[in-house]
Structure prediction request, 352 residues.
Amino acid sequence: MRAATASNVDALFAYEKLLDLAEKRRNLSDNRETAYWDWKTAVAHENIGDIHRLRGDVSKALSHYAEFENTMDRVVSLDPYNILWERSGALSHERVGDMHRALAEAAGDLAQVSKTDEFIRAEEEYQYFLNTVEATQVRDTKNADLHRLKAQAFERKGDLLAFQAFEGREAPFLFGRKVAEARQQYEREQEIVSRLLKEQPNNGDFERDLLIVNEKLGDLLIVEGKFAEARKVYQDIEKKLVSPDPNDLDRVRDAQLIHERIADAYWQEGNQADAMREFDICAKMKSEVLFDPRTGLLYDQGGDSAVRKRFGERSDVRAYCVKGFSQIASLERRAVPADTCTGRADGPRRCR
Prediction:
């Protein structure tokens, strides 16, 4: 998780003060102003929840997001035609869903995650998220931000379906159905974001959204065992990336994750030399470990599993790349006689 910094400690203190002020003003307000201060209270809960999420404290984040959601439900009911409030109401469902998603993974047995109450609650919240956005779009059909939120709702639903596909990999029919359903959700997002980017070609947020959904379509190919196809998808993404500003942590992380995925795909294909090269590029990039609900499919650390879905806290990508590089180097040293220096071992290797 991202460590607590002076900046977010100060921000947390400021948002807590704003929350206290908003609650006091709400209690002193007449009926005309109550809704406004309710909204301010909800936004304060959202901001406090965001800081706890960055720290990796899922329980505290969920507590504030639940208050955000409950308050926005009340506010929207008072003025169902307020686009700004409806947007906040939609985001509250997304935030709550993300935290239930994180708790689902933390529950334990990955083979049973989709059967947990937390996973089911995440499914419900993401459906509410999508429903709210679509209802709001009826009154503002050209709002690009609402279209982007709808795309993100499809992505969230696709993530859960992708996880269910991985769980059902021993049952071919279930596996195939869930992969197809996940791909459909991602392609819906891809269609929306591509259209938005065509309309606003210099919009960095839309560019990044398209990168992420294409990456996740590649992840689905990994789940299907189509490693070469997945690698080509990742490499197409990598070609479009520009050298990131070292201070832009999101962009650095995007580039790092692509090289990580390319390395893993090469490793699955048995191409250790190229895997080492990509792991080395990834390992030399410096980024923070972030709580990121928009993660894709990661390789498992043991057993016979090639991949697994990560919800919530992402592993330290840089440390993983260093480990991958070292493991391949170690395999090569063991595979080659001491009096030769040919450099590489033959044959595919199990991931991590």
About this structure: The chain has three domains: 1-141, 144-224, 225-352. The beta strands are 297-298, 308-309.
